[in-house]
């Protein structure tokens, strides 16, 4: 477990944990009769209730390119099954956005309004005194974000009372945190994993208590000192088939190389990527390259594409189908000039 260091160090925010193991079984259907695993969705029943709690899964790929003056990010929708929802983007605070994967929407069939993890997000100004900081955990600002999601998940996961058969190290829910750390730390990308554990109650046969664990924080950017700075790709589930965008670039994919042949700007972008120097590419050129390359690698999947900079600017290039919840509804104390993910009206 890594020891805690001050944020001034380029690896200061690295903490315990690593990427989860490959995804094997996740879409679970558990009814009162104890039905077996199924790939049609996640249905859970609370004993004594007729409604089943349904978790709709967001599957897909998140691609992040940290350029010279900004961060370009994309989310590609790759459904886990026919009722899957797309990865959703939300405001986390004035300098971070989050892309939600996994069980990001929960509902009862009798209630048309789902519980969405990207809605009514309560940002706390101080740490909850309920928690005691453990050695090696994340910086306080990240922990505040992580615990806010934890509090939303707890009452939902707590209703699962049947034995669930999937590896304990695989996440139920993930958040890709993208943005800028305070105190001039610079750009950062984190993965927050939320796993669950179960305990059987001896006095009640076939009755299990399920709880969601505190998030596991994994820093994906910046990399270790002197390590190459390349495009990042996060997948959910982890075993999504096919090469990642970094692998295609590294392997000189013909379609991607053709972009460089056709446009000298893209040739410079690819050269810097091969050198592990994406942070030296002009943000506009990186954005244009990403806009051109995503249709080549997404197999027709719907995607969104945006850019943010340290000064608070934000730009949608390919916006989501639905607007992100207004930040003012989440935090009344938010400055009016703070960055927002809402679609801006066309002039």
Describe this structure as you would to a colleague.
- There is one protein chain.
- With about 350 residues, this protein is of the alpha+beta class.
- It has a domain at about 30-240 and about 300-310.
- About 20% of the residues lie in helices and about 30% in strands.
- The protein has six helices and 16 strands.
- The chain has helices at about 140-155, 245-250, 255-260, 265-275, 285-295, 325-330; strands at about 30, 40-45, 50-60, 60-65, 70-75, 90-95, 95-105, 115, 175-180, 185-195, 195-200, 210, 215-220, 230-235, 305-310, 315-320.
- Strands 1, 2, 3, 6, 7, 8, 9, 10 and 13 form a nine-stranded mixed sheet that branches.
- Strand 4 and strand 5 (about 70-75) form a beta hairpin.
- The model is unreliable at about 1-50, about 125-135, about 325-330 and about 335-345 (pLDDT under 50).
List keywords for this structure.
nine-stranded mixed beta sheet; alpha+beta; 18% helix; 347 residues; five-stranded antiparallel beta sheet; 16 strands
Q: Which helices and strands appear, and what pairs or packs with what?
A:
Blueprint (H helix, E strand, L loop, with lengths): L28 E2 L11 E4 L6 E7 L1 E7 L4 E7 L10 E6 L2 E12 L7 E2 L23 H18 L15 E9 L4 E9 L1 E5 L7 E5 L3 E6 L10 E5 L8 H6 L3 H9 L1 H11 L8 H15 L5 E6 L5 E5 L8 H4 L17
Parallel strand pairs: 1-2
Antiparallel strand pairs: 2-3, 3-7, 4-5, 4-14, 5-15, 6-7, 7-8, 7-9, 9-10, 10-13, 11-12, 15-16
Helix pairs in contact: 3-4
């Amino acid at each position: 477990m890594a020891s805690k260091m001050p944020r001034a160090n380029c690896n200061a925010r690295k903490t315990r944990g690593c990427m989860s193991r490959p995804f094997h079984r996740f879409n679970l259907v558990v009814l009162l009769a104890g039905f077996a695993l199924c790939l049609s969705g996640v249905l859970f029943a609370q004993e004594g209730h007729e409604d089943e709690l349904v978790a709709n899964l967001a599957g897909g790929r998140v691609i992040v390119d940290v350029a010279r003056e900004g961060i370009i990010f994309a989310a590609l929708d790759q459904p886990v099954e026919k009722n899957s929802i797309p990865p959703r983007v939300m405001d986390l605070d004035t300098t971070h956005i989050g892309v939600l994967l996994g069980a990001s929407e929960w509902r009862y069939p009798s209630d048309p309004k789902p519980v969405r993890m990207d809605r009514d997000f309560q940002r706390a100004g101080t740490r909850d005194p309920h928690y005691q900081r453990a050695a090696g955990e994340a910086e306080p600002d990240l922990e505040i974000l992580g615990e806010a999601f934890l509090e939303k998940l707890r009452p939902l996961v707590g209703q699962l009372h049947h034995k669930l058969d999937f590896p304990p190290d695989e996440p139920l829910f993930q958040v890709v945190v993208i943005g800028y750390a305070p105190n001039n730390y610079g750009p950062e990308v984190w993965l927050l994993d939320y796993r669950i554990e179960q305990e059987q109650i001896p006095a009640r046969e076939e009755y299990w208590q399920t709880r969601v664990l505190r998030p596991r924080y994994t820093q994906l950017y910046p990399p270790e000192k002197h390590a190459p700075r390349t495009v990042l790709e996060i997948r959910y589930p982890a075993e999504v088939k096919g090469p990642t965008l970094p692998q295609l670039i590294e392997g000189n994919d013909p379609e991607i190389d053709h972009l460089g042949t056709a446009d000298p700007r893209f040739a410079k972008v690819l050269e810097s990527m091969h050198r592990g120097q994406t942070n030296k590419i002009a943000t506009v050129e990186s954005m244009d390259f990403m806009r051109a390359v995503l249709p080549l690698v997404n197999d027709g999947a719907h995607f969104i594409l945006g850019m943010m900079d340290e000064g608070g600017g934000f730009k949608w290039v390919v916006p989501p189908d639905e607007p992100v919840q207004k930040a003012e509804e989440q935090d009344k104390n938010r400055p009016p000039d703070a960055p927002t993910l809402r679609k801006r009206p066309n002039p």
